[in-house]
Amino acid sequence: MEKFLPISVQDFVQMITGNFVYVDKTSYIYEMARIPQAYYFLTRPRRFGKSLLVSTLKALFEGRKELFKGLWIENSDWPWKSHPVITVDFSQIKLTEAKALEESLLIALDQIADQHALHLKHNLLANKFVELITELHKKYQEKVVVLVDEYDKPIITHLGQGEAGLQIARQIRTVLKEFFGVLKGASVSANLRFVFITGISKFSKVSIFSDLNNLQDLSMHESYAGALGYTQDELESYFSPWITELARRRQTTTEEISQLLRDWYNGHRFTKAALQVYNPFSILNVFSEYDFKNYWFETATPSFLVNLIQEKDYSISKLENLHVQDTTFSTYELENLQLEALLFQTGYLTIHDYDGMLYRLGYPNQEVKTAFLNYIYHRLVKISDTTLKAQFVRLHQYLAQEDVEQFIQTTNAILSAIPYTQIEGQDEAYYHTVFYLMLSASGVLVHTEALTSHGRIDMAVEFKDKVYIVELKCNQSAEAAIRQILDKQYYDKYVQSGRKIYLLGINFSTKERAITDWRLEALNS
């Protein structure tokens, strides 16, 4: 029977009974769940299958063996015992303020009790949660499983909304701390079989989980690198018919389609293990529409991240090649939000390399980089003429055609339209940022401040058949820019690539608010 693509299907039971494609992750689930008592925490970006994992765990602990027919865990020694399961999905909870959150949680706990024909007497949130766990254990004589989805949504909802939003987030943090603290109490923990909490962001244990110090964080655990998302092997194994059909429609080979899929949607890496995964949501939509587009990014805009970038006056080009320590991933406080950690946890940056001391972060793939920088470009570059502002999309085309003159003219047209009040007094870094945003958002492959043995290139713009080595100057000359490229031999790393190499020197004039001098030279290699 033909399998269906599970677009927007996040429930395991619906996926199995509806004959949707289910990428078997039960070997990971078995490793988590086989321990007699375990408390786990796992973060992943949105649309990576966290809710599906929660619903799979629910079905597993309810002992519904018939749903797991043909999956890895069916042939394991899993006991298939039925446990009472408490599932709390914070995406379904009222999040406007702390009081509303507390009231919604009280209602949610009462509803779970009703499903089991229980009547809870306590009215305080912590007491009611304790009572529910205790009464479920008493009724079924089996230990209770607690599954929490999107635990951090109540806080994330209020980020990027100024001091008022931050104050609400702090109050909500207090409610969450009290709620999760229940799970550590001796009278409760004795009745628990398994606890699993998932979300997007990792708030440090001293803020929310200080009372739950036995919570094991799997977010960067190497053994669970492929627990969510699709690996290359899984993509080829489960989606081969769609890859073949996409190749037929585009009149190309399956190898070419596989490479496009890697460029666009692969590259997410969450641990030291060198395993990359695809974003499931994007892959499913590609095979549904048979088109390469920015699917994942369009499901939610990262406005609070852009607000933080503006507040911190953060250099966008730095995101291309960041080096951070382990501590970057473990510190997440409302009062001191680390942009690098946020961008990593939300999926806009990923691990490119780990040398034993430092992690190198960068954009995971073309979809994320192009869409994210496109969004930032439209937020940071204030131009009222939307038709002119949109001309940046042609910059890719002009460089591909080696029409540098038209490329410069279009860039200048956009720069000249930026209001004087925004551009007045800006230095080289500003022009560098706008130029980088326009180029990257157009879809071209741009590396900024790429390291060579002789120094750092301002920009390297890569195509399959050519590469532009770009040096930017401000109130100097294009000749000086070219001379620096030659003196520092920035082109060295590309000499053996077999591609044409162009040296492009560009000078911005702050007085003219434009590129006043540029020079292009082909490198004779």
Structure, described:
The chain has 525 residues and is of the alpha/beta class. It contains 21 helices and 13 strands. It folds into 3 domains: 12-224, Rossmann fold, CATH 3.40.50; 230-380, no CATH class; 384-525, Trna Endonuclease, Chain: A, domain 1 (3-Layer(aba) Sandwich), CATH 3.40.1350. 38% of the residues are buried.
In the CATH hierarchy, what is the superfamily of the largest domain? P-loop containing nucleotide triphosphate hydrolases
The percent range for strand residues is 15-25%
CATH class of the largest domain: Alpha Beta
- Relative helix content: 40-55%
Distance between the termini: 58 Å
* CATH topology annotation of the largest domain: Rossmann fold
User: Can you tell me the residue ranges where pLDDT is under 50 for at least 5 consecutive residues?
Assistant: 451-455
CATH architecture of the largest domain: 3-Layer(aba) Sandwich
Sum this structure up briefly.
With 525 residues, the chain is α/β, with parallel strands linked by helices. The protein has 3 domains: 12-224, P-loop containing nucleotide triphosphate hydrolases (Rossmann fold); 230-380, no CATH class; 384-525, Trna Endonuclease, Chain: A, domain 1 (3-Layer(aba) Sandwich).
Characteristics:
single chain; 525 residues; alpha/beta; Rossmann fold; 3 domains; 21 helices
